[in-house]
Amino acid sequence: MAQLQKLSNRVYLLPGSPNTLIVLDNDKAYVVDPGIGDGRTAAIAEALGRLRAELAGIVLTHGHTDHLAAGLELVRPGVEVYAHRYCVPLVESMEARFLLVYSGLVTAELASMPLVTLGVTSPFDWGHQLPAGMKTLDLHGHTPGHTGILLEEDHIAAAGDAVLGEKVLSRFGIPFASNLREWYERLPTLRELAEAGYTIVPGHGPVAGGSRARSMVEANMAAVERVYNYVLDKIREMGGATVEKLTVMATRDLSAVEPTPRQLMLNRTAIHSILAWLHEEGKVEPIASDEGVVWKPKQL
Hints:
alpha/beta, globular, NDM-1-like, Metallo-B-lactamas, hydrolase
């Protein structure tokens, strides 16, 4: 069972993938991203018992299964569930989640995750103040409503999947996001927080502060730039390619993971967002062909 770690007088970390924060507010507690996996719910319940705190709310950085599944057995009358209003459909609907993550419906077997939904009782916007001094921060890109949770009193930022630990990043190579351009453009916000002395808690990877936090954020920026340049270079080199072809090549060349059907579908979503970015910049254009949609270099 994960060891509870104290980050400040009232903020505790339950390490995992994803990481979970427990924020105390007198005798109440708020769980940020309860996570997933055998024993996770029990670990949270045990931690709350040790802290002698009653669960008052679950706060989600976004609506992906690995961040919310353990919350199913924690929810009961009186426990609020908080999520950004743009992420409410993802939290409450597996179909919406599949469409955003995989660009289409998939089976539970292919998703390799439990089909878990929660009911959001307290939707919020960015810049809102939540209980226990939690402030919501715009870190969208991974999902449309992805939110960071700022604990200004403690100088801690729960970043969710707006930033990845460097080992996770090097293994997968292609950061997953429904919109990698927006994900990339939010990273300077986290770099500024690191420079201001905040401890950054990524969804996946070790907690980091100071120069290590800044290095982690900059590694994520470099990873997006690497994928962006790879896709553009391949399109120019080959004279055009489908998103499927680009996804297979990028997965093999940039990551250390096996190109399974699930991984290719995840990476396809990220690569498609790169193509949208390049198209917006006028660098590529889609052409209909017998192969499907081929992305070609735009003639200047």
